[in-house]
Amino acid sequence: MTGSLEMDRPDDRNRLDAMAQGVIGKPLDRPDGPAKVTGSARYAAEYAVENCAEGVLVTATISKGQVVAIDEASVRDMPGVIAVISDERMVARPAQGGAGESPVRNVRQVEYWGQPIALVVAETFEQARNASKQLRIEYRSDDDAAIDQHSRDVPIETHGEPTIQGNLDKAISQAAYAVEVTYTTECHNSAPMEPHASIAQWDGTTLTVHSSLQMLKYNVKELADAVGLDPEDVRLLSPYVGGGFGSKLGISPEGVAASIAAMELGRAVRVVLLRQQVFQCVMRRSETTQRLRLAADSDGRLVGFGHEALVSNLPGETFAEPVTQASDFLYPGENRTLRIDLARLNLVTAGSVRAPGEAVGMQALEGAMDELAMKIGIDPVELRLRNIPERHPAKDIPYSSRKLAECLKAGAERFGWHGARRSPCHTREGEWWIGTGMATAARVHNLNEAEARVTLYPDGTAAVASDMTDIGTGTYTVLGQIAAEMLGLDRNDVLVRLGDSSFPPGAGSGGSWGAPSTGSAVFLACEAIRTRLAARLGCQEEELTLQDGFATVRGQTTALSDVLKGDQIEEVGHFKAGEISDKFSAAMYGAFFTEVAVNAYTGEARVRRFTGAFGFGRVLNAKTATSQCMGGMVWGIGSALTEEEIFDKRYGHVVNPDLAEYHVPVNLDVPHLDVVLVDERDPAASPLQAKGVGELGICGAAGAIGNAIHDACGVRLRSFPFTPDKIMAELGDP
Amino acid sequence: MKPFEYNRANDLDHAARLTSDGARPIAGGTNLLDLMKLEIETPDALVDINRVPLGGIEPDGDELRIGALVTNSACAADERIRRDYPVLARAILAGATFQLRNKATTAGNLCQRTRCYYFYNTEMPCNKREPGSGCSAIGGFNRIHAVLGASDACIATYPGDMAVALCALNATVEIATAEGHTRSVPVRAFHRLPDDAPERDNVLEPGEVITAVVLPAPPGGKHVYRKVRDRSSYAFALVSIAAVVRMDGGAIASAALAFGGLAHKPWHDERVDALLVGEVPSDALFDKAADLLLDGAQGHGTNDFKIPMARRTLKAVLREVTGDAE
Amino acid sequence: MALIINGREYAFEGDPRTTLLDFLRRDCDLTGTKKGCDHGQCGACTVLVNGQRINSCLTLAVMHDGESVTTIEGLGTIDDLHPLQAAFVKHDGYQCGYCTPGQICSAKAMLEEAANNWPSFVSENLSGETRLTPDEIRERMSGNLCRCGAYSNIVDAIVEVMEREQ
């Protein structure tokens, strides 16, 4: 087997474990770490480009209607103002992940409050921002903007094909134990620390853009399509990305506007979204209303399972928050109803935010599961253990490797879980009720086509190149480790270069598929290089042992540089997902255990302990994988307790479009996080036996916190986030 | 930010001259620059008063005089304030972050403006920002808004913590007038209720500059600052309470309570203090205090919860401050 | 007028609207200091001015004539990391890296504040010596948001440096 693979069946060869270097999985420091901690890593807006003009977007102040006129004269004479751009090529929305084509343009047709309308370009940022505030825009406002998901005249459509098996109503009515509840979640914002930013340069034939993006191979096409260029004439550079969490999957309005301005003005233009604009015009996670119906027999085994959700998006968007994604495969129940309804609202585009689907679906499901466990009177861990299906409950296909039971047990042991005979309000410390809760973690495994180039140089060092990005996930680290393991090199002798669209197209960072997909491409390229080395040594590839820069065949050891004899070997690995995903239900699993304190007077909830045990196939780097899990758990704390992007029900604007009032967790909100990595190899997941880990840590985490709140003080809330006012309202006399 | 003329004053006279001509004093700038970037504040001229000698914390007889330019950090770290006025140190430390408190000054903090979402959105009607335009918080999302002392024109809250403690301590604001005189205003009377002029947060007149805050003689007793907020740090108060209570032989000898997050000003109700004095602490007494405090409280929808939250938080604070536990 | 940044003099003669943050990033090409929100709500722009940590987005460059500014570039270099920088790498106290320079500048100032016995909101006593418990570190670092969620590792990194210094 060489350079390319379409994954149609499991790869049981488990090659990485047979390698000799011993670096795969090791908790090595990130090679990009020193650049990041010294401030020398340059992010998109930070390139010193000569004669760079500054642009600031002007956004709509109505929710629906038309821009009748843009009064350029109102700013033209302001100091430093160069141009007002409201080109028909400008985009009114960000691109959805993987779109590969321009998002909706026509910025003069306003469909949500905050929609980009124009770009003001000036010599300095202060001049541009000031002029952007002064630019007069005349609107004709429509009076039929749809803003409230629950208002009666909002158009609602069923998204995709619902799953309907058996008779859930009947199962519920005849069940020994049944839970029928509705949970809600509010809109979330990805809020990466680096706002979306682009510097565009145009030399008359090629458009070069430093931009903060997650998936360059799609982004090139999106940008080229938007501005009317051939994709070959567009180059994107994103070697460092200051967080994405889905909001940088597709091109966003600032990059297109900067590009158009650069092409029109013949000089470089930088556009950085104001923090408020990150809330107003990039991407929100949809609010959700989730009806959960669980029917269990007398042993606590699920016989009926219903998960139906109402979500929202702008007219014309095909994305609907896939709330039931894990419900599809996680638990049994022959009587099943899964369904997503989509309301069309005039609110900023809804799209992927870290773990779309499971992030909000799992926290509601796991709340309902806790309610069921209480009803049955069994340990909630035991309820989960009794409900691990043998085959996919709807598709009747096998699971790939699945460590759910192991995670439940390992997490419970590490945490010191006592699940028997739970009843709330058992522990009080001063003003605080103390309780514990748990939840399952599950996130579907995704793969994407990916290429990567690996070059083995005559001196025995190597380089990996792909347009893949590292958005903090550790891509630089793990791709280097895969190549080092496969080629028998010190990790420091492998240079990884990413985030340049002129490199072979990787998977992009999204859906937790980056490492398993692009990593597989690196693996395949290395396999091909090994085959060529073997040919030089007159042996089969499998006979070759590579370690510390030496090749050993049948007891004979040769320095790689002597094998190469001044040549370099270069291979491009090409990985395709193939049919494997139709043959196996593959997912990452885990379990959360947490201890929460609730103030008996004020309803403030604080997470005091938080353990997560996770199984996601082979761990490529124990340090960065642990960090990914921790990050997800922090998001879980935000989702449980503090985060909600609020829209004014009358005007449709974001009420809290900043980091003062949109409350992402701060350091004090987060206790020491305890992460257990459960050893696993999943041959159906990828040739690396690895799955993804960037999102798993959030999927269910907030459910565990909600369950702990219930255990602490007896308050069962179903409308996330559980802010003090909501908890307090249900508390008894302190 | 709109362009402005920048001048630096090196003494109070110079600062007063420039402010009389319409320049806005800037010290820490942590609130003013935030608002200027959004063009909620659009001064034509700034006078940088950081080098005016208004720093230092100095005793004046039994009193303690905190210079206008003393940073929040320096104030909270001062040994005398930590020892004799712990409620003030606690309140300051409950607000913002170390970074912000290193810049934010005593006078600037008193003058910080509301965090009302609609005040911050220049596209929305707001009587505080644009008198006569209306109040879009009424009927809107008003979770952080006032339940006491609001008007039809404005339901914004004063967002700070420090001033709540200063109210409990009954401190005095020392002001240099445009004419070169000095006048003193109790902190309890410094901030205004919105009435029909919510554009005025406080009683400062044009051209006036705060020069100091004066703390009365140490009140003794037990000091508590309780802040209820959405996240455990770096968030504005939903409800906060500063309490200074001295017990004598099982009864409350003196009590001074002030409340944040409830009104357009740090809320002080002397009837509540008076009710407590001379009484033996009991839940019934605390309920009566809450009844009195919240008599006339009115929610506006999303902030209705503040009424029971104030009641419950008051009970927690009074139990703590009158209890034996040290 | 001029500012002394990392020991070097930088003349400032621009628009008075220029924040210290934009002056550092645009005029001095010291892009290690990050702009995350531009409104004092995230801490990514934290630098030390005259030894104290501040949000450089909420102050004007023109207000700092003659003052001494230390940015992340002034703490250490790739070949000669400051102990905090090295500890952040070792403990993976970052992911995307964008909040990291602010976190490290903040941590440096925090250790000095604690050495000067400055209390915090979570200090049990306002008198006596400041002991940096994990909760004290968390509260004192709460002015630096990390959306990637590296807080637990950030605390570990700081604890290691603190313990080594003691």
Quick overview:
The complex is a heterotrimer of chains A (734), B (326) and C (166). With 734 residues, chain A is α+β, with helices and mostly antiparallel strands.
Can you walk me through this structure?
The complex is a heterotrimer of chains A (734), B (326) and C (166). The model of chain A has no long low-confidence stretch (mean pLDDT 97). In chain A, helix 12 runs parallel beside helix 13 (514-537). Chain A has 734 residues and is an alpha+beta fold. Chain A is 25% helix and 26% strand. In chain A, the strands form 7 sheets. Chain A has a 7-stranded mixed beta sheet, with helices on both faces. The longest helix of chain B has 17 residues, at 306-322. Chain B has helices at 12-20, 32-37, 72-77, 79-84, 86-94, 98-103, 106-110, 162-168, 187-190, 270-276, 283-294, 306-322, and strands at 5-8, 24-26, 45-48, 57-60, 63-67, 172-176, 182-186, 209-215, 222-228, 239-248, 251-260. Chain B is 29% helix and 20% strand. With 326 residues, chain B is an alpha+beta fold. Among the domains of chain B are: 5-48, Uridine Diphospho-n-acetylenolpyruvylglucosamine Reductase, domain 2, CATH 3.30.43; 222-322, Enolase-like, domain 1 (2-Layer Sandwich), CATH 3.30.390.50. Chain B starts with a strand and ends with a helix. Chain C has 166 residues and is of the alpha+beta class. Chain C has 2 domains: 2-74, Roll (Ubiquitin-like (UB roll)), CATH 3.10.20.30; 83-165, Orthogonal Bundle (DNA polymerase, domain 1). Chain C has a 5-stranded mixed beta sheet, covered by helices on one side. Chain C is globular. In chain C, 66% of the residues are buried. The mean pLDDT of chain C is 97. Chains in contact: A-B, A-C, B-C.
Q: Mean pLDDT across all residues of chain C, rounded?
A: 97
Give average pLDDT of chain B, whole number. Answer: 97
β-strand number of chain B: 11
* Neighbour order of strands in the largest sheet of chain C: 2-1-5-3-4
Number of discrete helical segments of chain B:
12
Question: The CATH topology of the largest domain in chain C is what?
Answer: DNA polymerase, domain 1
Q: What's the total count of β strands of chain C? A: 5
Query: Cα distance, first to last residue of chain B?
Result: 50 Å
